[in-house]
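EI: anyone free to look at a 289-residue chain?
SC: sure, send it
EI:
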Amino acid sequence: MAWVESIQKAIEYMENHLLEDLAIDSIAKQANVSPFHFQRTFAVLTEMTVGDYIRRRRLTLAGEELLATDAKIIDLAYKYGYDTPEAFSKAFRRQHGVSPSEARKYKRKLQSYNRLIIQVTLKGAEPMKYSVVEKNAFQIVGIKREFACVAEEENVVGIPELWEEVNQNGTTDRLFQLNDGTVKGVLGVCGEVSDEQKQANVFDYWVATSYAGKVPEGMMSLEIPASKWAVFEVHGPMPAAMQQAWKRIFSEWFPSTGYEHAGTPEFELYTDEDPNSPDLYSEIWIPIK
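SC: here you go
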């Protein structure tokens, strides 16, 4: 359960420093993982971004203080991290459904988000089918786009739009043809995050395939390092089956094993079957140590 404890330690750090300028690097350091992997794990487990959690908790505390004290709204705005009362009022209304002045005047009920505690249920009734394999380094070729780590909405919308684009323009058909069999299928890869990307809080997402030859025109290449991999079977239509599998991996599998994420690129593997089929077979590959 050390993995769960490390995530909870990062949450406690956020709670203890809610009124300060919280940097994702400092938060992730508490969990002893990279900022990218912490944000990804947090989003899978909680279905919200780190930024959303911090904002909701700050506005929850601000609402409690607003109703319990005579503190000026402008003072609360600055205390809870807003540059102007207008920005505070806008965020307050978005969460609570009323403005700060309305909440105080009419004693309205507010939307409260409690301190988060990660609870893991270890289930045996629904086994997860996986294997552990070791593989030498291999090259992938394809296309990549940059997405913001903190903008969950961008990921949820942008990555499916990218897949729709490459499916329509023939890129995925070309990738299936290029595949050399090292890993069979077309891959959705979360690439390694450079130092510059860490500062900008962004990451590369690839649609690619394993290919050992010269990089085809119009494509780029990335070397996937040698690793031990946990390979999970995913059965069912996209994207629901893949989303459910990721959640079970982080909430059930990692906490119940001695493995840790190795911190190198992970990927989803897709076949050329109908993505809406209830019998669709896919895989999730996670580097472990």
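EI: The mean pLDDT is 89.
SC: 👍
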